[in-house]
Amino acid sequence: MKDSQPKTIHLKDYTVPPFLIDKTELTFDLDEATTVVTSRLHMRRNPECGKSNAPLVLDGGEDVKLIALAMDDYTLPEGEYQQEDNKLIITATADEFVLTCETLIEPQNNTSLEGLYRSSSMFCTQCEAEGFRHITYYLDRPDVMSVFTTTIIADESRYPVMLSNGNEVEKGKTEEGKTFVVWHDPFPKPAYLFALVAGDLAVKNDTFITQSQREVTLQIFTEPHNLDKVDYAMEALKRSMRWDEETYGREYDLDIFMIVAVDDFNMGAMENKGLNIFNSSCLLASPKTTTDDSYLRVEAIVAHEYFHNWSGNRVTCRDWFQLSLKEGFTVFRDQTFSADMHSETVKRVEDVSFLKTAQFAEDAGPMSHPIRPASFIEISNFYTLTVYEKGAEVVRMVHTLLGPEKFRAGSDLYFDRHDGQAVTCDDFIAAMQDASGVDLTVFKRWYSQSGTPNVTVTDAFDSATGSYRLTMKQETPVTQNQPNPLPLHIPVRVGLLDASGQAISANLHDESSEDHVLHLNTEEQVFEFTGLNAKPIPSLLRGFSAPVKLHYDYSTADLLLLMSSDTDGFNRWSAAQQLAVNELTLLIEQAKAGKELSINSQLVKGFKALVNDKTLDPAMVALILTLPSQAYLSELANPIYPAAIKKARHHLKVLVAKALADEFESLYNTHKVTGEYQATAEDIAHRSLKNLALSYWVETDNELAQKIVFDQYQSADNMTDQFSALTTAVHSKHEKAADMLASFYEQWKEEPLVVNKWLMLSACQESEDAVAKVKALMEHPAFDLKNPNKVRSVLGGFGQNLSGFHHSDGSGYRFLADQIIVLNKRNPQIASRLCTPLTRWKKMEPALSAKMKAELERILAEDLSKDVFEVISKSLA
Ligand code: TRP
Ligand code: ZN
């Protein structure tokens, strides 16, 4: 541990910046050895700041070397400024002045990938959240918005492409024969949206005509060998631009929009104004190298970053506590976009399944926080599933409460009222409330309370009056930081079914409908439906109308009925999941007690009916037939017995496979897709059902199924089918699995993105010696500790490997802790994210829990980055 503990920053301490920067002029003299950055900041005192003699405190220091500093024409001697604690302090300043600052940085030695760094042979930047201070001294906070002009100087033979935000306004030669390019971005922006790229890049050009008939140049830049993989992203970009015009009335504002793909990137992508930078894994796509899932991910992330142009850039965040203002809203926007492009129900199931698995687990763990955190040590740790995914659920609830028209009026008001400003989550809710007249006072508590609320429902039917009463109770978990949680405003969408599965039109508050939104906004409420002649079966929380845990004592017959007949497609999936969870829970108990596993599965009955239901989207059939993941079962368990979960899930999978072997064989054959590969919803749906069927069928030890796995692997003309066959072979312990893995690497070793998938699958492989295997993988030529995608593949994959990571001798935990300690120095953001599986120690079975805790303590004894310190110390608290 460090001698001085990193300090906690609180939302309640927010004050406006004492200075503003109207104009920022930057010059980068790029070089492999040292890069010289010169800044001219046109500053003045902020009239809204009460203190007229506050000192000027600029962020920066760590890796920035100060060469010269001047105020207007006066060069500041060393005594007239101080440098401490990564700040540059100037005590005496005028009210308005130009600060000139010359600094040296070494991008080639930047391994944290924050600020200016090198990826392959290019220079690139990542400034969100606080990366700009690694480039030069600045007021590096989102409420300081400035108009940027950027000059890039480099040797044109090695860096023919030089990009920054906005429009290119000038190009020429310097006296030394280097090339310079000047970019100007007319829209004021915070420093976190600054970007610079220089390299020998190839480009794909296109154009987009906006709704007001302006022509926008679109450009996607990659290393030359990847230019054949950008067509899909370009089409996705044009679809996103059109959709934002049609759905939100938002038009693009500059004359040019550029995207650059880089191989080394800490996250998925970044919405820098006019110059988005992408992790190549989230941009490049081709049928032979990219799976269906990755195609959809590329489309969603291209859309997400594009949508930030309004929700994030034109209207930005006042401070980093407001991160969900842009991220929650933008995730909601990209989710709706993907739903519109493909299938709404399929998209909803995928998003909710992810939320309930990963975000619920985060919200029940030591890093649990509200979507608007009240404090942090390191903001990078708060780019979380809670801020993003739960944040999107909160915006979705606003949409449900207001309805589509009023929601649109609210978003119009928000964008118009706050264009060019840095604002808060309260401002967003105020706009929604003002435009709609809907009172969101109680609803706003979602922004300040953490944890997943429990909603418990009981019911009663009165045959004399024909009234059906639903009683709902809500309870938000009490935690150390949250001793007295208040009731939330929870929209609960409900429908009623009769015994034959028909939808009932019931009266609630004199309104007759097959679908009602109930407003649960106190601790306990009763909702009375009238005009019924028998006790109905309630379909609760349709479409997952709120991010809560719903408890209602469904009988197996109820669940089978909902699964086969509910008009809400989402709840058909949800009922199947609940039924599977019920059966798996029994099996897990048997496994824990060392008993032989045995169950009279009713799920099999439901599945049998389902595979014969020709009205359903095959993608939905595939989702319903997918058993709850080990990760989701772990989220539900307390404590978690990993080996029992694995055993139980495998038992049920084999049981279903054997009971429905013929059905799976026939599904496999009927859902083959012919013709050229297309990433359309229809083809993706068929492939997903076909490949899921094969993964069941092969569990019956049928020789034909095993042969088909191998044949499909060998003859597939697209990565979805090839990789799916390989995954099935590995997980079913196919006799040729090892050969197939080896040949896959040989086939694809020149395609890093495919190799990353291979690394991930290899690291997930369950076996007694999984720890030794993953250690060997890190010695493999395909591995590179400098590349976050490779680290995520191997160490992220290993974290999900139950027999490896959770090995009873603790060797899996020790191994991961060793890697965290190494990465803590090189790349704190990546190291911090790798801690997640260890932080769940309190929920593990006692023998494992103690071993995890010991590793956390060993990490805490090291000299830690703020990032890792915050996560480790909070998980031990
Ligand atoms: N704002 C980015 C997004 O679209 C997130 C992001 C990209 C990021 N790179 C980062 C956040 C680095 C922190 C650090 O969601
Ligand atoms: Zn985002």
Task: Report what the structure shows.
With 877 residues, the protein is an alpha+beta fold. Helices cover 40% and strands 21% of the residues. Strands 6-5-9-3-2-12-15-14 form an eight-stranded mixed sheet, with no helix packed on it. Strands 30-29-32-26-25-34 form a six-stranded mixed sheet, with no helix packed on it. Strands 17-18-19-21-20 form a five-stranded mixed sheet, covered by helices on one side. Strand 14 and strand 15 form a beta hairpin. Helix 9 crosses helix 13 and helix 15 runs parallel beside helix 17. The two termini are 15 Å apart. The model has no long low-confidence stretch (mean pLDDT 97).
Ligands, deduplicated: tryptophan, zinc ion
Major sheet strand order: 6-5-9-3-2-12-15-14
Shape: globular
Structural class category? alpha+beta
Query: Mind telling me the C-alpha Rg?
Result: 28 Å
**Distinct helical segment count:** 27
Main sheet: strands, sense, barrel = 8 strands, mixed
Q: What is the terminal-to-terminal distance? A: 15 Å
> Ranges with pLDDT <50 over ≥5 residues?
none
* Proportion of residues in helical segments: 40-55%
**Assembly state here?**
single chain
Strand residue content:
15-25%
E-strand count: 34
Overall average pLDDT: 97
Secondary structure: elements and pairs:
Blueprint: E1 9-10, E2 19-29, E3 35-45, E4 56-59, E5 65-71, E6 74-75, E7 82-84, E8 87-90, E9 96-105, E10 115-119, E11 122-126, E12 146-154, E13 161-164, E14 167-173, E15 179-189, E16 196-199, E17 202-209, E18 215-222, H1 231-248, E19 256-262, E20 269-270, E21 275-279, H2 292-307, E22 316-317, H3 323-341, H4 344-363, E23 375-376, H5 385-402, H6 404-418, E24 422-423, H7 425-436, E25 454-462, E26 467-475, E27 490-497, E28 503-504, E29 506-508, E30 511-513, E31 516-520, E32 524-530, E33 537-540, E34 549-551, H8 556-565, H9 569-592, H10 603-611, H11 618-625, H12 630-636, H13 642-659, H14 661-670, H15 681-697, H16 703-715, H17 719-731, H18 737-748, H19 752-764, H20 770-779, H21 788-799, H22 802-805, H23 811-826, H24 828-834, H25 836-839, H26 846-860, H27 866-876
Helix pairs in contact: 1-2, 2-3, 3-4, 3-5, 4-5, 4-9, 4-12, 5-6, 6-7, 8-9, 9-11, 9-13, 11-15, 14-15, 15-17, 16-17, 18-19, 19-20, 19-21, 23-24, 23-26, 24-27, 26-27
Bound molecules: tryptophan and zinc ion.
